[in-house]
Amino acid sequence: NADDETAAVLLSNLHSGREDEELGWPSQILCSVVLPKFLSLEKSSSRVLMSATIEFCKIHQRAAEYGLLFPLILRREGINNFICEVISRVLKECWHLGHISAFCQKLLCGRKEDKRRFLFLPCHRELIADDPT
């Protein structure tokens, strides 16, 4: 669809090849352009959007963690098969095993006193739970 192609072009033209800020503009791009599309998936994601997202997340791994994966996993309505496919592909194609292990530890064993730092737009607040329980 045209919106997916627009998002893909935006992602492919905005990655700079380095990540200076953990929660800087790469996270903002993911949470404002890509996350809304994936939060509402009711069918498989388009190839063009998925490919552009994978390439962006390979370069901006921490942005993917806080601006895409945490919010998707904590989706209030749960994870459907299509969202699971997105999460699996990002994890498998963008991260090494050590990073995946650390991510799972943060997700499952996060301390209550630590404020989670994942990002989403205020309009998506009602779609994302505060914790995985």
UniProtKB/TrEMBL annotation:
PANTHER family linked: FANCONI ANEMIA GROUP E PROTEIN (PTHR32094:SF5)
GO CC annotations, alphabetized: Fanconi anaemia nuclear complex
Annotated Gene3D superfamilies: 1.25.40.480
Organism of this sequence: Noccaea caerulescens
Record's protein name: Uncharacterized protein
Biological process, per Gene Ontology: interstrand cross-link repair
Database matches in InterPro entries: FANCE
